[in-house]
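Final paragraph of the annual report: two paired records, presented back to back.
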Amino acid sequence: MEIERIKIKVSDDLKERIRLDALLVRELGFLSRARIQRLIKEGRVWVNSGSGRCSLKVRSGDLIEVSIPSLVPSKLEPEPIPLKILYEDEDLLVIDKPAGLLTHPAGGQVSGTLVNALLYHCPNLSGIGGELKPGIVHRLDKLTSGVMVVAKSDKAHIGLAEQFRVHSIKRAYLAVVYGVMERGSGRIEGLIQRNPRQRLKMTGRAKTGKVAITGWRVRERFRHFSLLECELWTGRTHQIRVHLSEAGHPLVGDPVYGRGWSVPEKLKPELKTKIKAFKRQALHAYLLGFEHPISREKMSFSSELPEDMEDLVNRLREFDR
């Protein structure tokens, strides 16, 4: 059964022709490359009303149609993992994810994830994301905390995914970074792609990649650190972490992009110990705003700093006294 048919017009800004499957991976981030290729091979993708092929090179102005079929329910095990629910109706769920909780099964881990917790709370999640990602429209890194929206119905999934695709969703984060920001606000823009030498890392120093834009402003300055509010105008993997690290202000505790950054020697011993013991990136998704995909109501949800980051900020304030 078809859930919905999505129409995509290839941007006039596209300078070079691109493979059909590669374009759809970029445009339909809620579907995996394997799922997209399967849809094409099953004859569920058309280009200018003609059958699509994975290797077909599309150009600016082309009209692509994708038929999204229903999926069988996930076979993952539901687990009674506590959830902090901020809002729920028959179509979607908004939760406050704690740091340390993996969003969905990956890397061989199939239990102890947010998806396992969601299936226990709501067995009939949207299946569009695939068997390992039921209900998942977007994700937060395992060590990032904060607000997430989850799709319970397929129509909600399609509607939310479209908002993420066109970057109409408001996403704001709080981050504690090394160094004192001289300006009060700014914008970081560039191309992000996977680091060719270290595949688990991303880099913003590439000549090719996806456009990534992060806005930031200073919430509070400390003697050797800053508390920032960051807004995502695009949503690339590790975007805030990459942008701030390459700007010379890595996140406190970032195990990937903060390596090699030394703790200032002038800190009090107890604060120095606190900084070194902070074992996750000090990043919290505190605000999420979107249009309800069914009712069209404008919605906004926020979350206070979690205890570990609140304690870190308080320690930095004490050091400044």
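The closing record of the year follows.
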Amino acid sequence: MSLARRNLVQDKTRFMLSVLGVALAVMLILILSGFLNGMYRQISAYLDHAPGSIVVAQDGVRNLLGATSLLPADMDSLVKTRGAAQVVPILSQFVILDLHDKKVPAYLVGYEPKIGGGPWQLAAGREPRNDKEAIFDRVLAQQHNLAIGDTVAILDRDFTLVGLSDRTASWMTSFVFVRKAALEALLRAPGATSFLLVTPSVRVGEDELRRRLSDRSSIEVTPKSTMIANDLNLYGGVFSGPLRLMVAIAFLVGTLVVGLVIYTATIERQREYGVLKAIGARNSLLYRTVTTQALIASSLGTLLGVALAFGIAQLIMTVQPQFLIVFETSAVIQALLLGLAMALFAAWVPARVITRLAPAEVFRK
């Protein structure tokens, strides 16, 4: 251990650069993983908090956020007669808002405040009491300097902002809530319903209710968990591939940084290693020396990287609150294991150099 430590600190600048290189790689890995986890949480946020365990949609529609649905009239009454304890109808539509000369996408949800299906947490204000009132996501309102009491145009009608919802934002789009009758009027579709959020009665159960509704060819009956998974596959799949590629690149960069430092230190001290081999030091001792150097640099870099990741994540979410970065315990453990893997991979090439080192050749040099 003492030999490995002396070899590292002999050139403090190079040692600190190797630690910093690993720290930046681990930080990037954690930030990207946290961004992906946060994106998944934002995509599933509405259904995670919506009532019911079954979603009834138009035939062929198995996504909440990925398709337009329009159910047959009076479908909620039919579902109730088949064994539902509660049926919550919502009408939804992606819209483009014109806010301060900027085109802003939003997911507009029409709901009945007395039944549910609206915002699950209000940061300020109240729910709409008439068809001329709306709730905006808090982050969306903050970005466009909107406050409770302001008038906002949605499609071709003006609405008064009466509430700000919390945890309903994402970097892709934000939620806006109005009364269902208000959205029906906006879309010129009186009585229209996009989805039914269904809670089965205790005596019927989820599986039995789905079976009872399966004879209706005009609807799609999907467990809420499956609907969430479909939305995650649709939107998360687009970004998960590139993000995982960037994680792999960060791992490679960290490994190369540590490997280059350890390799350079090994080459510069070939004579010392040759002397050790000449006096009887086994290869296993020299392997441990090289591996220990890599482990020291990677361990310090990994711990620093984890600390930096938490700090940078808080900074990002403060400056750009539409981004959500979530660090799960498994992701932090994975980052620590990746730091260990960096050390082992980084020690491989220097270890091969020592294996091939012949004491006689060193003395001839």
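Residues 224-268 form the longest helix (45 residues). This concludes the annual technical report; the extension proposal builds directly on these records.
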